[in-house]
Amino acid sequence: MAKSDKINFSTPSGFPEFLPGEKRLELYLLDTIRRVFENYGFTPIETPAVERLEVLQAKGNQGDNIIYGLNPILPPNRQAEKDKAGETGSEARALKFDQTVPLAAYIARHLNELSFPFARYQMDMVFRGERAKDGRFRQFRQCDIDVVGRRELSLLYDAQMPAIITEIFDAVNIGDFLIRINNRKILTGFFKSVGVEEEKIKSCIGIIDTLDKVGENKVKNELEKEGVLADTTQKIIYFIHIDGTVDEVLDKLKYLTTSTPEAEEFALGVTELETVICGVRNLGVSENRFCIDLSIARGLNYYTGTVYETTLIGHEALGSICSGGRYEELVGMFLDEKMPGVGISIGLTRLISRLIKAGILNTFAATPAQVMVVNMQNDLMPVYLNVSQKLRQAKINVITNFEQRPLGKQFQLAEKQGIPFCVIIGSEEATAQKASLKDLRTREQVEVALEDLAEEIKRRLA
Amino acid sequence: MAKSDKINFSTPSGFPEFLPGEKRLELYLLDTIRRVFENYGFTPIETPAVERLEVLQAKGNQGDNIIYGLNPILPPNRQAEKDKAGETGSEARALKFDQTVPLAAYIARHLNELSFPFARYQMDMVFRGERAKDGRFRQFRQCDIDVVGRRELSLLYDAQMPAIITEIFDAVNIGDFLIRINNRKILTGFFKSVGVEEEKIKSCIGIIDTLDKVGENKVKNELEKEGVLADTTQKIIYFIHIDGTVDEVLDKLKYLTTSTPEAEEFALGVTELETVICGVRNLGVSENRFCIDLSIARGLNYYTGTVYETTLIGHEALGSICSGGRYEELVGMFLDEKMPGVGISIGLTRLISRLIKAGILNTFAATPAQVMVVNMQNDLMPVYLNVSQKLRQAKINVITNFEQRPLGKQFQLAEKQGIPFCVIIGSEEATAQKASLKDLRTREQVEVALEDLAEEIKRRLA
């Protein structure tokens, strides 16, 4: 066996792990998110962590990120297989870095077994060699939903997304949030109408997208560096700052439509946005939960229509906690078929880490156990085991303490883990078919008949 | 964008993925397993998929398996960082191939933040380059529990494992199963007592462990190849075939203890086994759910005491569906501390695939949606959205069909996905605040007031 003093057993940089109380919080959030996704009829899938490298790179650019390829390490007795391992060259495989390309591959692989529109959720781990200096994770869980249609997809799917975002963040009780909605066609159309050259529009939208982070002056400079005239830049800055209530912004946009009649794409974007807003309202989303923000664009180039970002009010520095949008070309790429989709994504690992640090979310107790049956004397163990099983059958999570130690130490052990109750049975109680129930939160101790114990604990837990 | 006809978008060999109905079955099993684990006070952890290679190899032998190292693929604009990427040489990292070494590392990393005995569950994906010809998976989910003590750990933790196995497999209703219990000290002690040389005992136990697969004659041959005398082989074969009720086997073992008084390890193993069996009974596990089987040993060399295998009655060819045991040296390896542990493992991905194939488990409907609100006419969409939201608030999973298509087509779409109910609202129903509720399983259709719709659906779902 290797000597421990030579082994660095820390986690590799960027590969986080949670303590039990944090992991329990993550599971609670995952359960909540899943419940909302399923409530809207999204069905779960999970694609392998590993895909063919050519599949992962099919979208083209891997951006700024490292992709983790696989490098098979053969055991000593299998060195001869090296050439057959098929893990390199044209057979190269790598860890997925998002869930969008894998969704496209999944649909291509199972086209005839799926029903369309295909509404799926996916909460897998993804792997991205982000620059370490950004303090970003290299492995993290993303909670994604997407609806994908064949050829067409109603804009009402776009309208459902804010309803789903609202239900999730209302359920987990993290305070007020605002869903900012825009449509990329509006931006693209507006840029065209003010004379920005076609081939520069995407990079200009990318510059606009950084407004929140870098401020107005930097955006102006960057636009001018792209060759946008000062006058045009001023129009753009004015445009993306249009604000007011949802209806006021819509009215201004519609007015702009009439004043720039040649900009078809702009007008289409406005119509789409209006349809989406109408759907959001029909779905009963509170007016204070959403707004139109003409400055949001989402950096990713594949979005073609509706885009969303979600900001936590008072914690804007956290950035968007849930984002997404509509895309046309992505999912059908392996099938040469038009498959429009719309989706949103929550970067859960990062979100949890940041919300814990900001004091917005509290970690859970270190164990799901609600009761510790303490060990007063080893010869009563059959009683302790029997009582533990009865409580478990009543759906109470129980730890039986097998080690006989001073009672105070056993209470401490329970308390350290956040277990609220101890059940204490000595020989007198055992004979009388009773137990002492200690509530470690209040230090209160009561005597309860064994047959009533489960009910009493449940009453106090409720 | 790359042309689809050049890209092989199939999953890499050995990296499986489920269709939605299979994934939903997996989630149901995961939920059930987690509920039982938590009922016994096990707390969740998840270690990163990626660990330092030296950590993964600390146990020594990687067996017959390929370990998947990471090979970072830098984007074009970051080639200069190659030397700093730190993913090779002493900084090499790889995908975890089990959850035992990562558990040891996790405990070493968080020693002072954890409470002991530390009872944790873990249901992560692991990655193993198994030989493709065996039809095994290279990525699969393992559901593990382990309890780890510092210096000591009560044998009653060993006794809890069969109770947990029983609750899980009873809950998922896969038919009769049998938990076979043994203790490696009994085997080791017996081998010593019949004169097998100390350094050959581990390999002899390995040979015994193959009895189920290769049969008695092959075991005899292999033992004799190891240099075990024919007479001794005969004693071993006789010994591992000792059977009868649990009490009969225990009696025979105790008799053998008195007749071989010099074999301390044998006697210790028998005492441990008796203590475990006594605990299993006190925990209320049915007598028909467990037996003593002196032929099971678990191939893994790190087991030192109790060992378990679980067989599905009538489907013995599936092999063990849940296995585990007690170990002494494994978890403390990074800390040079004695940390005994006991655990069990369910290889869930493989189990599901095989149970579906064997017809023991049925896949779920393709969607969690229980109701489809159909689209009779687009102008009633506000009503459809409103009704859908009301049903969702009543915890019914709903898909609203946005595409206006012939009613029969919409029923077909619902039926194909296994959605039991359609809600039909035309303009007359809308005016009368009513809906037609169609049960696609019985083809029955009833008229229900909108205010009673949720209750009526819940009544029919129950």
Automatic annotation (TrEMBL), chains A, B:
A Gene Ontology BP annotation from the UniProt entry: histidyl-tRNA aminoacylation
Stored PROSITE patterns: AA_TRNA_LIGASE_II (PS50862)
Any one GO MF annotation of this record: histidine-tRNA ligase activity
Pfam family for this entry, one: tRNA-synt_His
Occurrences of domain Aminoacyl-transfer RNA synthetases class-II family profile (ranges): 29-368
Keywords tagged on the record: Aminoacyl-tRNA synthetase, ATP-binding, Cytoplasm, Ligase, Nucleotide-binding, Protein biosynthesis
EC number(s) per entry: 6.1.1.21
Binding site for L-histidine: D98, Q99, T100, R128, Q142, D146, R298, Y302, Y303
Gene Ontology CC: one annotated term: cytoplasm
EC primary class: ligase
Catalytic reaction(s) noted: tRNA(His) + L-histidine + ATP = L-histidyl-tRNA(His) + AMP + diphosphate + H(+)
Main location: cytoplasm
Protein's UniProt keywords contain RNA-binding: no
Subunit (UniProt): Homodimer.
PANTHER family linked: HISTIDINE--TRNA LIGASE, HISTIDYL-TRNA SYNTHETASE
UniProt family annotation: Belongs to the class-II aminoacyl-tRNA synthetase family.
Protein name per the record: Histidine--tRNA ligase
